[in-house]
Amino acid sequence: ERSARRVAVSRRGHGWTRQTLQDRFDCVVGEPDELMAMDEAERASIAGFATLMSPVDAGLIDALPNLKIIASFGVGYDHVDAAHAAQRGVVVTHTPHVLDDEVADTAIGLLLNTLRELPRAEIWLRMGKWSSEGAYPLTPLTLRDRKVGIFGLGRIGMAVARRLEGFGVAIHYHNRSQRDDVAYPYHATLASLAHACDTLISVVPGTAQTRHAIDADILARLGPDGVLVNVGRGSVVDETALGEALRAGTIAAAGLDVFEDEPNVPQALLDAPNACLLPHVASASVHTRQAMGQLVIDNLAEWFERGTVRTPVPEAAHLVEGR
Ligand code: NDP
Known about the structure:
This protein is α/β, with parallel strands linked by helices. It is about 40% helix and about 15% strand. It contains 15 helices and 11 strands. It has helices at about 15-25, 30-35, 40-45, 60-65, 80-85, 100-115, 120-125, 130-135, 155-165, 190-195, 215-220, 240-250, 265-270, 285-305, 315-320; strands at about 5-10, 25-30, 45-50, 70, 90-95, 145-150, 170-175, 200, 225-230, 255, 275. The chain has a 6-stranded parallel sheet, sandwiched between helices. Strands 2-1-3-4-5 form a 5-stranded parallel sheet. The two termini are about 20 Å apart. NADPH dihydro-nicotinamide-adenine-dinucleotide phosphate binds next to helix 9.
């Protein structure tokens, strides 16, 4: 019976979650390649996989014949083949809601740092330039009078919008479908949003549809005062086009928390003085990462106790409905 609830946990990622899972479940710790290399009986003993950041592809799902649930750490699950899992009847869960405020806080911080050059101003102070050269130069950019477009007005996008209301800026948005609970101007296309705004905050998921959605044309529409902030997924931005737009002054600045090939950041972005770069830290506080980990644990526990889960991904919703 105990083997029927054996859980594999990825070796990488949030330590507290892994430790707590090991305390609560019969666990085997391993990265996908290690799990694939296990003998048949051992692979057949695994009923759940908690991925704290490791990719889960169709090959791994097929190699675990009794897998019932994949509990993924994080709200974005582009590293999990959720369509294949659903086809195999494997439930996938993620961690929505619990990180909305943290990620929105980071998005606002990144926006202000990008506009007002606060990280560079601090370096100025630390390098002794305040006393040797005087005041830090006035910043050409400001949040004042900006028109902000939110690309992806979902859970996190709404938390960003609520914060932006306090800053007194105009808020527009683009989703595939218009929301019926907000009065912000809706744009049916990203091109229309970028045309109407000078500031674009991207918080859409990384999907085949959103891949390179922010390209040279979208950036040009933001104009020479344009600012891009990306806290969604790196794949959404054509980084080559962005590097060129920052170099050529097609847009003024960018603030990025996510990159297409993490942890590799393109040299053109590293070289751009008008890029504010963060190492994917939007949800990375002890508080919020623990809340995300707790939800991973709760999803697994509820699955093994009652056959239900708290937060299935949309692809898995039909597998758990009515239970
Ligand atoms: P939601 O699903 O609540 O929101 C996503 C929004 O994007 C929805 O409003 C959706 O609207 C819109 N959207 C999705 N696909 C498209 C598309 N093809 N074109 C236009 N709009 C689209 O997700 P969350 O707000 O919870 O999270 C968003 C993403 O943020 C995550 O998927 C993750 O990748 C990223 N993230 C990054 C973090 C970081 O550390 N930097 C931390 C947390 C999340 P509609 O369906 O109407 O199109």
